[in-house]
Model the fold of this input.
Amino acid sequence: MTLTRKKLPIGIQTFADIIEGGYYYVDKTPHIHRLVEEGKYYFLSRPRRFGKSLLVDTLRCLFEGREALFNGLYIHDKWDWRVQHPVIRLSFADGVIGSREALDQHINELLQAEATRHAVAFDNISIAGRFRELIHKAHQQHGQRVVILVDEYDKPILDNLLTPERARELREGLKNLYSVLKDADPHLAFVLLTGVSKFSKVSLFSGLNNLNDITLDAPLATICGYTDEDIDSVFAPELQALDRNEIRAWYNGYRWGGHEAPSVYNPFDVLLLFQKRLFGAYWFESATPTFLVEVLKQRGVFTPALTAWHSRPALLSRFDVDDIATEALLFQTGYLTIKAIREEIPNRPIYALGFPNQEVEASLNEALLPALGINNDSLDELMVRLPRLLKTADLPGLEAHLKALFAGLPHDWYRNNPIAKYEGHYASVFYSHFAALGLRVTVEDASHHGRVDMTVDFAGHLYLFEFKVVEQLPEGRALQQIKDKGYADKYRGQGKVIHLIGVEFSRDKRQIVGFEVETDAA
Done:
């Protein structure tokens, strides 16, 4: 049977264009129907390029009653097409706003465009007054309550987080706009605000206590993104000559709502893979996380801990200009995701967080290497040299490579960089420089005390590392610990050569002083 290929909707956020233009479309209307049936005020946080704008535009078309676009979709026979609502859509996705004045101008332009579309003339001159007037008059003129859709509601603040004073000014400007929704309830049919981050209701949504945050609701976990089932059915014509397991390892793994909810793929990654037929860090490279890297550098984050972070739900939701928990920043921007949920105490869950997939783990670690003291020249060299050493199991060469890596860290860097105050810095350099290559790296001890048990699986070889910090001279304890604790036992029988490597780093000399190796061909 010949599968019919369609066009790939790369970068297309307009629902009508996708439906009428012969593009692939994953039906999200079951989720939309649930939202409309169960509530009225919603907030949804998802990382960038996850399809939030397309979701917003789909809702706009639905409430405007554009029935023909929904033929064949789940919601078509469940919607009353006789009712058409006025829709006010505000988007902050385009451009970079750098001042309160520019923000107010942008908001006024958005409100004027919507007023013109709905044949509303303003009597008010303030932003809050105009937004309120637009809602009231649109309701009055159309005879139906208004739908409010706000896309990328937080972008002006996020673009200025490195300048907190400016970010606070922009936050107040947005608060001035959103505060109108509190008293507009009699005129509203449905409200959805989407963005990357979840700013606290106190700081941004003053009084809007009925806003339902659906970010972590398991039934709505796949409202954005593609599931495995979507890839295998909707995109089946595109899978030819691509390794299905590799697609999953590279791009799947984002999870909202715990292990009972399906994981999803970032649509931007998958669509570009299908177009280019090559694996690449498409999502990560689409916007350099300058702010993220700077914050992680300032806070001295122990990078192996990123593979196994734990957090209370309240911390994942805590995000404001002056109070951004590291795990909230990483989770909301899409660099960490939920791997599991534990409840040691009933109804008090703890989230286990980790990298969603190979793309994010490799790309973020590569971006962090300069913050760990590894310059671009060293990075280029290791990208060429390290895979060759591992593939041929050149252990003397690997020892020389690692010693040269640490010797290349400038002494000024140790004095000036706050991350250097942690013993774990040595383990961070060690782990991140392997992970940056996109190798299969497993970290089993992610404590902040400088110890990291790490396994690298590459080209038929398994490298088991134990890492210890000593004062000056090697003590031989690292390799012995691997043997005493039987770390290699669970890997036997896989047909791979196992190399046990004990690495000892001198705190005083800032260099590898012990590198013991034992190879087990069994």
Remarks:
- The mean pLDDT is 89.
- The longest helix spans residues 100-117.
